[in-house]
Amino acid sequence: MDIKEYLNDKRRQVEEALIHCMLPAAGPLARHIEAMRYSLFAGGKRVRPVLCLAAAEALGSDPAPLLPVASALECIHTYSLIHDDLPAMDDDELRRGKPTNHVVFGEAAAILAGDGLLTLAFDLMSDPALRSHISDTDRLRLIQVVARAAGPMGMVGGQALDVASEGQAVDFETLRTIHRCKTGALITCSVQVGAIIGRADAAQYEALTRYGEAIGLAFQIVDDLLNVEGSTEELGKAAGSDAEREKATYPAFFGVEGTRAKAQEAVAMAETALVGFDHQADPLRLLARYIINRKR
Questions:
Q1: Beta pairing class for 94-95 and 98-99
Q2: Would you say 38 and 104 are in contact if contact means Cβ atoms under 8 Å apart?
Q3: pLDDT(251) > 70
Q4: Which of 81, 57, 245, 220 is nearest to 150 (CA)?
Q5: What is the pLDDT of residues 110-158, one digit of tens each?
């Protein structure tokens, strides 16, 4: 299997679903919707929805009818990027090679664009039209899984701890908590949502959760590494910003080579979690390797 071909195919499916799900920029709220669309359609790897689809496929399920659920994950991720870039947060002016949302639309409009994408995500996941493909019980379960991953004990809490830790001498356990919450939680829950869609049994769900936790860690470790080694042109955002803001990172604790070894360990854990799955989980295996080799 060619992982790039697989990713391009799934990315196309997600893009089409997002176009279908996203509100048109028309009427009195056109400017607000335009700000939401600006960041949502600014590019990106669509890793989270792709992981959701791949996890469902690993269980022999066709996830295509549930693309709105996968799209909701991308809406939440995009909202987090808009808010992360704000002057009160990381104060970034570049994202995916384009001016950040607040630079184009203003700070207040960017905050509201993020708020709009977050709430739209729960609208998509709670749509009664999904009943013909997933039971109300499973739909409620996945909504709770996503809410917990995105909320105060997950992504938002991780962002809060990350901001509070800037310029501070933090221990490694604090860094692990930041990474597990800020980045890992939404990646893990993307896999878990796919597991729910694919009707995983308890053992399969646990294994896929371990996989998600491992690649969530690998993803953030590689992010830390790219911020040190990559260029602004390659990353589509400011390189070297972590050191400038005195953020706690893996390279700060382990150096570049040690960090690379930690990323390899995380990918190995992800692959080990999938030993009980057959060839239908090959995309998940290849995605783990893709994550560690990515350049942006």
A1: antiparallel
A2: yes
A3: yes
A4: 81
A5: 999 999 999 999 999 999 999 999 999 999 999 999 999 999 999 999 9
Q: Is the pLDDT score of 105 beyond 90?
A: yes
Give the H/E segment covering residue 96.
none
Is the model more confident about 231 or about 25?
25
pTM: 0.93
Q: How many residues does the chain have?
A: 296
Domain of 186, CATH number, reads 1.10.600.10
Indicate the SS3 state at residue 31.
Answer: helix
Backbone φ, ψ for residue 276 (5° rounding): -85, 0
Q: CB-hemisphere CA count at 13 Å for 241?
A: 17
Query: Where are any strands of DSSP class E within the chain?
Result: 94-95, 98-99
Give me the number of domains the chain comprises: 1
What distance in Å separates the CA atoms of residue 220 and residue 150, rounded to the nearest whole number?
Answer: 16
